[in-house]
């Protein structure tokens, strides 16, 4: 059992529940991962950066699908209207003018072929399983758990604030234009996490539900952590790249 596995015993006030959720992020969000620290210290090769962008695309591309699964389960038109903004943010008005397209621009700006990235054929098995687990979770668990799993967005502005300045300062082939995906994300993440947190505070009204949302956030942190674990294992010093996965020109 994790350190948060019994955090809601006896029931929590809304303020106490929010504190626990923020403690989960402080302890388990992936800005604590060694791969992230390597990135922000300037220690990654261009090949490792390409591998990160390629694998992260597989995560970005599934976000509208998991959000559609959440919308499908809601009978509240106001909730659906608010949550639909997330799909519009990632897909844009025509499917290719939103966040996913901006992430593709990041990947191609690092020298990757757009068709190869979009195919997702060369992502790591660990990435594929983590992303699939997240989509399955949001499809099959309770709606409250699915909403709570999105609360990693509470911490997204922190990691972006660490990542973007470091990438611009320490990698001479990275420009602000390449990183345009991140321009809008802090504001959008704050908007979305405020809504999701208010939903969780309203609907997690007993100890069992409170524990379920804590566990949901732990799960989502594990998904993001596992993706960086897979990158570190495949593209680290030992070079354990699985068969069929992306092979950089230089690691």
UniProtKB/TrEMBL annotation:
Role description: Ring cyclization and eight-electron oxidation of 3a-(2-amino-2-carboxyethyl)-4,5-dioxo-4,5,6,7,8,9-hexahydroquinoline-7,9-dicarboxylic-acid to PQQ.
Q: In which pathway does it act?
A: Cofactor biosynthesis; pyrroloquinoline quinone biosynthesis
Keywords for this protein: Oxidoreductase, PQQ biosynthesis
Q: Which InterPro entries match?
A: Haem_Oase-like_multi-hlx (IPR016084), PqqC (IPR011845), PqqC-like (IPR039068), Thiaminase-2/PQQC (IPR004305)
Known Gene3D superfamilies for this protein?
A: Heme oxygenase-like (1.20.910.10)
Keyword Oxidoreductase attributed: yes
UniProt catalytic activity: 6-(2-amino-2-carboxyethyl)-7,8-dioxo-1,2,3,4,7,8-hexahydroquinoline-2,4-dicarboxylate + 3 O2 = pyrroloquinoline quinone + 2 H2O2 + 2 H2O + H(+)
Quote the PANTHER family the UniProt record gives. 4-AMINOBENZOATE SYNTHASE, PQQC-LIKE PROTEIN
* SUPFAM superfamilies linked to this entry: Heme oxygenase-like
Protein name per the record:
Pyrroloquinoline-quinone synthase
Annotated GO biological processes are: pyrroloquinoline quinone biosynthetic process
EC number in record: 1.3.3.11
In the UniProt record, does the keyword Ubl conjugation occur?
A: no
Q: Where is the Thiaminase-2/PQQC domain?
A: 26-229
Regarding protein family, the annotation reads: Belongs to the PqqC family.
MF terms from GO for this chain are: pyrroloquinoline-quinone synthase activity
Name the domain of life: Bacteria
